[in-house]
Amino acid sequence: xxxxxxxxxxxxxxxxxxxxxxxxxxETVRQWMRAGKLSGVRVGRTIRIHTESVxxxxxx
Length: 60
Description:
The structure is a single chain. The protein has three helices and three strands; from the N terminus they run E-H-H-E-E-H. It is an alpha+beta fold. Strands 1-3-2 form a three-stranded antiparallel beta sheet.
């Protein structure tokens, strides 16, 4: 059985991936999360960013 893909609004990427997409540092991504500009979740000890919030921040 093939794994089900989540809708784009629920897909998660790493802080580093978000930083690369947005052309900023990983620390800036973390600051934007604290400020509420990006949404994400903590998975264990790591943070994952919702792809939809990255797209929204990019104006898309």
